[in-house]
Design a protein that fits this description.
By secondary structure, the chain is an alpha+beta fold. Helix content is 16%, strand content 38%. It is globular. Bound molecules: D-MYO-inositol-1,4,5-triphosphate (I3P). D-MYO-inositol-1,4,5-triphosphate binds next to loops.
Amino acid sequence: PLHCAPALPTEVQRAGLLNKTKIAEGGRKLRKSWGVSWVVLAGNSLIFYKEPKGPAPAAWCPTSTRPESSVDLRGAALDWARELSSKKNVIHLRTVPGNEFLLHSDQEATIQEWALAIAGVIQRLDLE
Ligand code: I3P
């Protein structure tokens, strides 16, 4: 497994650039604002960092040690966003506190890999 010390305490399962927008906070709908984030799946969390400046990082490490935000995947739900976006390849993540995110990639395979990885973590936590 790849480690990203000292930036991340837990093993990084997956990391990469995705288009992201938060669409609800605490159950209240937000106005969509798509932007690029460096997204890291590590431990029980999905962690969002600012888009790295310059060339894409070679390692699975964020350029900044400070996440913009982080999502606890325990009890979360993931599905395809179909009616929630005009874009293709969008997944919809809902967390227990009622924060909702859309994640998008131009590459269908990329978003499928993310969907499988995130769903795997959610399922593992459901079984605990
Ligand atoms: C939004 C913007 C988003 C779009 C959203 C629009 O307009 O075009 O890209 O989401 O659609 O409202 P604005 O920039 O004026 O806020 P998608 O690209 O995901 O479709 P929506 O209102 O149907 O969610």
